Fold this protein.
Amino acid sequence: MAPRPAVLTKRTLDKDLDKITHAEDVAKHVLRRLVAPGLGLIFLGLAMLFAGVYVFDRPGAMLVVAAAALAGYMAMNIGANDVTNNVGAAVGARAMTMGQALVIAAIFEILGATIAGGEVVKTISSNLVDAVQVPPAILGWIMMAALMAAALWINLATWMNAPVSTTHAIVGAVIGAGISAVGPEPVNWRVMLEITSSWITSPLIGGLIAAGLLYLVKTLIIYRDDKVAAAKRWVPVLVAVMAGGFMAYMVLQLSPTGKYQSYTIILIGIGIGLVSWLAARPLVLAQARDLENRNSSLRVLFRLPLIGSAALLSFAHGANDVSNAVGPLSAIVHSVGVGGDAIGHPPLWVMLIGAFGISVGLLLFGPRLIRLVGEEITKLNPMRAYCVALSTAFTVIVASWLGLPVSTTHIAVGSVFGVGFFREWYTRHSKRRIAYIRRKAESFDIDEPEEPNIHETRRRYLVRRSHFMTIVAAWIVTVPVSGALAAMIYWAMFALFV
């Protein structure tokens, strides 16, 4: 029998080579998915090494090193999940690219955590459970159990796609571990009541501020006959108010207590606002050149304030939510005698672990969620997104100044609800809007537009309101679940190691 043609052998070889190529592609795909977790593990190792340098000769060195790893892990979770809310709107509105959003958010998260995060860290580390009444060794194990419980619960909730707050998780965990260790007496219930009330009032305040900002934007810009001219006049003012308010807060935060009188701080804020107005005005005028008198042009002109509000919100988030990661670590560090100047005042290296952990989590795991949040938030146009971001930032900044750990996500959601409810009211009752629509109808020589279908309007808003029960349920569940989990972990740790 004649031998088979060589061409068949060549085809078999080609098939084998294709299989090898496909195997290599699969391997690359799998390895690519492991890059981010691998870099995260490297960061946790560096955090442990960083902590070990400061405590290697202390009796509780191993406890601090392990707590540093948990704090870094908690910070990465915060960066991966919460920070996406800060820049998602700007990315979705195409005000900045993904790379720009990641860099801006990472920088301002670090600045907010290191510059203005101390007061909230103090509340978590020493004010929830009275550090004076609890022996240092017991306090260390309480905070260790709280860190582990909060991290596990957030991971589980994220896997289940449940909307939970990292702030609620760590507060509930500290309280639960504290009660299981020393009973309810050392728990500062007055501080807990203040924190709980802030969880209720802060979303309401954020919603009111957002609604007020949107009212000004609609009244002064959107429902004007010449939108572009109005935007050229008022957008620099919005930038000035944002910059001036932020700088006044920074002076108040960084200067020694009593150094500046209130009117001096106000004057500094006004001065910075004036400089910002002078700087923003030519930029806005350049952007407004050749723009048509329509709402789509306002998207371009609101790019600058939207970027600024996203950066400011990242700073505020870093200042407040870094405490969720490093508050317990700060208490553990003090329990072994290597803390800062006093109980509740964290050393700089502790703050750096939390600050860089948030940024690492954002850079490694944030892009996918930023795209998701951006697609959802861009249903709000850039003007509404600006109102939400700025109101959230100012509310969180005030809470950080007061030392109250609040949920940034819930304030942002409260701001979204505020914008939605205000739009419903404004659509039905605003005389300025009705007059504007009638003028536009007359200018185009068309009949007055019909009123929107009331059932469709109610259905659209009810979709938004339906999220309210989910948020409330998450708030109710997170605190007791994280507290119970922390109590069980503390008992297990006490039985194994103490």
